[in-house]
Amino acid sequence: MTLQNQGILALVRSGLEGKAHPVPQGFDLAQAVNTLSAHGLLGLGYLGAKLCGYRMNDPAMQVLTAAFVPELARNVE
After folding, report:
1. Per residue in 5-54, pLDDT tens?
2. Exposed, middle or buried, 59 (CB in 10 Å: 0-12/13-18/19+)?
3. DSSP character at residue 20
4. CB pairs under 8 A, 24+ apart, for 56-63?
5. Burial bucket for residue 73 (CB in 10 Å: 0-12, 13-18, 19+)
6. Inter-residue contact 56 to 27 (CB < 8 Å)
7. How much is the pTM?
8. So what's the pLDDT on residue 77?
9. How confident is the model at residue 1 (pLDDT cuts 50, 70, 90)?
10. What's the rounded Cα separation, in Å, for the pair 27 and 61?
11. 60-71 burial code (b ≥16 CB/10 A, e <16)
12. HSE-up of residue 64 (Cα within 13 Å, Cβ side)
């Protein structure tokens, strides 16, 4: 399993369980956004990233937020 897949699974698991799971060192959150989006996991990825300590001023978190907010708005309607 690739480092990126391990990181994505850690984020999704964190989002599902509501507690932080370790993200592997070298994981690229910004690069994971496309995979999270393709599998309909942006919400869990976003929640997991917040639980894992990513801050809103982190450029990768801003990329994730920019992808997640329109999906959230679409689902609220």
Report:
1. 999 999 999 999 999 999 999 999 999 999 999 999 999 999 999 999 99
2. exposed
3. -
4. 58/29, 59/30, 60/28, 60/29, 60/30, 61/29, 63/29, 63/30, 63/33
5. exposed
6. no
7. 0.89
8. 62
9. confident
10. 13
11. bbebbbebbeee
12. 29
Which residue in this structure is represented by tokens 């994730």? 64
Helix (H, G, I), strand (E, B) or coil at 39: coil
Q: How far apart are CA 49 and CA 58, in angstroms?
A: 11
Token pair recorded at residue 21: 């799971």
Residue type at position 31? Q
Amino acid at 75: N
